[in-house]
Structures are given as C-alpha cells and as structure tokens.
Specification:
Length: 257
C-alpha cells in the first residue's frame, strides 16, 4: 500500500484543491477537488448508467415470463389470471437475481478501472475505481444476495468479483465490500452478518489495503474486519469482535475481548 501517485515521502494535503498530477488527468482531479459536489456528480454519474444496464438485462427474462403468462390468461377468469400472474411475478424476481450475479461481475471485469491498495484523499481520481467496484457489488448485495447466502452461488459471485476463496469455505454474510482485495483460504467459516472490508477511513484519507484470512480460520457472528488485517491459520475471531487495521492475528489463536 502506497500513498497517492506513489509519492511515498510526500505529505498529502487533504484540503488541497490542486492536483499533483500533470496533463489532462491533473485538470480533472483539480476540478474534482475544487467543485466537490459537482465533481462527485460528474465522476460517479455513469454508475447510474451501469445500474440501468445491469438491472435492465437481468430483468428481461422475468419480464418475458410475465408477459407470456399474461398473454396466456388475458381471456380467462380473474382468479385464474391472479393464480398464474402472481407466481410468474415471483419467479421473475429470482430470474432477475440469477442473471444479475453473472451480469454484474462481467460488467466489473470489462470496466477499465482496477482497484489497487493505496492511500489517497477522498477527492482523488485514484479512488474512482473503488467507488465503481463497490457500487456494482452493492447492487447485488442490496437487491438479491441475501436470498442466496450462504449457498455456493454467493461464493461464486464473490469469486467472479475478484475475491480469492479457497475450497470448503462457507460465507454466511453479504456485508462485504472490496471483494477484489479480500483473500480467504481453505475451510474458513465466515459467520452470519460478519463485516469484511478491505478499506478504512482515517484523518481525511481513504486507505485501501488487503484483508487476508488464512486456512481454517473462523470469523464469528457479527465480527468486523478491516483492510490491512491478516487472520492467521486456524485463528478464531469471537462474535462481535472488531479487528482494526494493521491487526495481525497469529495462527491458532482465539481473539479475546
């Protein structure tokens, strides 16, 4: 993890309105910093277009199913219509989710934006990939993912989003951000509603760094783990415990309160 633009020894001013970058990117970043509300709107507006695309494509099979059911029953008694349209609407939701968990990772992969460990101010071009990656992750998380957690499908979704997951691992939570920077070993158990983040905010900076959970570790119910944390092999994090950044939990240890 290195500071913004790789300038390891230079102190970054979180209130700076001028970019250290040169050329066109420097002009863009300076605009982003000087006009923060407008800058955020301009930089992140394309997320709405991505949402419309992903949701639109994912809804299409369900819409086709409902339209077919309606065409079949439009001349039948209203009770028959309700008995067929209702299930078709319910089925369309699950068709939406099943398509979405493949469309979103494909969209994420095709974007020319890659999330890398680094430290930067919130108003920097280098954090834009982070916003986009998590926006796509949250689209699935907040509309469908809880319905398939824990199943092999939620694990498959996270793997397609770039998370490294070993064999025999169970992930019983959807409270996950930055999946492309999270590494989980073999036979790990992630307890219900645990929170996994590969980032944290500190003193006006966004710090993005890897979260690593090694083989056979157990993360308890509602535990919280941040970026720049390593959980050793066979270690146990108790329910509701918090592992703050830079924590290194040794192998085969139980996290105490």
């Amino acid at each position: 993890m290195t500071p913004e633009n790789g300038q390891e020894n230079k102190v970054l001013d979180i209130n700076a309105t001028q970019s250290n970058r040169g050329g066109f990117l420097g002009l863009m970043e300076s605009f982003f910093r000087r006009f923060r509300t407008l800058g955020f709107t301009v930089m992140l507006a394309p997320i709405a277009i991505l949402y419309v695309f992903c949701m639109g494509v994912s809804l299409s099979p369900g819409v086709a199913l409902v339209m077919s059911a309606y065409e079949y029953v439009q001349n039948k008694h209203i009770l028959v219509q309700a008995m067929l349209i209702g299930p078709s609407l319910a089925a369309s939701f699950f068709l939406y989710g099943l398509v979405l968990i493949f469309i979103v990772p494909l969209t994420n992969k095709l974007l020319p934006l890659k999330v890398r460990p680094h430290r930067a101010t919130w108003y920097s071009l280098s954090v834009i990939p982070w916003y986009y990656h998590n926006a796509l992750t949250y689209l699935v998380r907040y509309t469908f993912l809880d319905f398939i957690t824990p199943t092999p499908l939620n694990k498959l979704f996270y793997q397609m989003m770039g998370m490294k997951i070993g064999k025999g691992t169970i992930i019983n939570t959807s409270n996950i951000s930055d999946p492309c920077l999270i590494e989980i070993g073999d036979y790990v158990t992630i307890g219900g509603s645990a929170t996994l983040l590969a980032h944290y905010g500190m003193k006006g900076f966004l710090v993005i760094d890897r979260l690593i959970i090694k083989n056979k570790a157990t993360i308890g119910l509602n535990a919280s783990l941040f970026g720049d944390v390593i959980v050793g092999e066979g270690a146990i994090v108790k329910p509701l415990e918090v592992l703050l950044p830079k924590t290194r939990l040794p192998d085969n240890i139980k996290k105490e309160a």
